[in-house]
TrEMBL record:
InterPro entries named among the record's database cross-references: MobA-like_NTP_Trfase, Nucleotide-diphossugar_trans
Lineage of source species: Bacteria, Bacillati, Actinomycetota, Actinomycetes, Kitasatosporales
Coiled coil region boundaries: none
GO molecular function: transferase activity
Origin species: Streptomyces cellulosae
A matching Pfam family: NTP_transf_3
Protein name, as recorded: NTP transferase domain-containing protein
Amino acid sequence: MTDDENRVAGLLLAAGGGRRLGGRPKGLLPHRGRLLVEHAAEVLRAGGCASVHVVLGARAEEVRARAALPDCALIDNPDWEQGMGTSLRAGLTALAGTGTRAALVLLVDQPGIGAEAVARVRRAYRSPRSLVSAAYDGVRGHPVLFGAEHWAGIAATATGDQGARAYLKEHADAVELVECGDVAEAYDIDTEADLTHLE
């Protein structure tokens, strides 16, 4: 791994309040004997991210108290109720000035995405100009990698629950798609019915 690749940070967005789950933050849901936020942070680390940064929001103090997140940088997003875009902005702001060359973004509520998908997306990093996205049968999904040169533009357009969608659409020609459908499933844990995906 080159020095440049060592500067790809994992950015886990885990601030949501789980409105459609009766107000249960998704990061606190149990999965495979631990909390979903712990599972997702480990996926980023196992996928080769040099550091892992976790954006917290809903019941952040409870997550800090209950979750074992050793060596993770915890970032508070006081505006989490305004949507995922605020968490993405908070995470990218925290990474600015750290020497990080790219942020590899994973959502806490997609436990079907494992370390191999993260590793594939991370390996596609080339420079701070890189824009990389996992794809499922050719359709863009998560995780996504944003080279540092794109952070300001992404932050400027990240609103509501859209995250980087508008920016990626505008720069579609620059996005490298990495097929991950053979090693990951990109379902979300959004509703009570989705809880059947948890183990």
